[in-house]
Amino acid sequence: MIKDKLTVIVTIKDRVNTLPRAMNYYKDFPCDVIYLDSTSEKKAIQDILPHGYRHVPDKNYCEKIYECCETIKTKYSVIVCDDDFLSPTGLEECIDYLEQNPSCVSCRGQTASLNDSFIAVESLEYFMEVVFPFSSECPKERVKYAWSHFNGASVHNIVRNDVQKNIFKFVLDNPQFNAIKFFDKIHSFMTAIQGNSAVVPVFFGLRSDESKTGHFVSSPKLKKLWNGHLNFKDDFLDVDLKPMQEIINVDRKFIENIFHELVNGKTMDDDIDRLFELDLVPPRSKFSYSEYLDFTISGHPFDFIGAHGCKFVLGVVNGYEILLRMGTGGDIYGDNKGYEKWYASKHKTKINENIVINTLYPTILKKNLKEISKMISFIERFPL
Question: Does residue 133 lie within any of the structural domains?
Answer without folding.
Answer: no
